Amino acid sequence: MTGRPDVEAALAAFVPRPIDRPDLRHSAVAITIVEEPDGPAFLLTRRAETLRRHAGQWALPGGRTDPGEGPGETARRELSEELGLVLDASTELGVLDDYATRSGFVITPVVLWAGPVGELTPNPDEVGAVHRVPLALIDVEPRFLTIPESDAPVIQLPLFDRFVHAPTGAVLHQFREVVLHGRATRVAHLEQPVFAWR
């Protein structure tokens, strides 16, 4: 069983690597751990099909950082806007490595402990569906592909008989490595599929 003290200890032992890219916009995503009857899970969304960019893709709640915000504030604000789940700063457990996307952002993943949560209210303008994913489901080995457009490997994380790609797949793989196994595995070099470059 992975409880809050276990997650906090794993993140405290990990030294996250920031990315200094002034040319990219800052953003944050929330890896939100909720307590379910069968154990801890995290919140994963499918983006609404009506969105102009990355419609229908797997995503962690998140978005662009507003002026004056830190990553934790951004992650918690976006979680509230997307899923109606309001958390305070005491729920922030730590961050993982920054990840630079092909679409022009530096993402900081923020790990939050929400505890038991009731009904969520997804914003239909942004979220097509929300899933409470048991942590055990991401304790799997990813698949790595080579593509002619890049020298870096493309990561595919198996989930729900499909694959989750970077950036979400890379972030979740690092969460698995750091939190579930205590390994400081780096993922910033892992590539996104070409369809996510725009």
Automatic annotation (TrEMBL):
Limits of the Nudix hydrolase domain: 24-159
GO molecular function: coenzyme A diphosphatase activity; metal ion binding
CDD domains, sorted: NUDIX_CoAse_Nudt7
Top-rank taxon: Bacteria
Entry keyword set: Hydrolase, Magnesium, Manganese, Metal-binding
Cofactor(s) of this protein: Mg(2+); Mn(2+)
Pfam family, one: NUDIX
Statement: the UniProt record of this protein carries the keyword Cytoplasm: no
Membrane-spanning ranges: none
Keyword Magnesium: yes
Region (Disordered), start-end ranges: 56-76
Annotated family: Belongs to the Nudix hydrolase family.
Protein name: Coenzyme A pyrophosphatase
Organism of origin: Pseudonocardia hydrocarbonoxydans
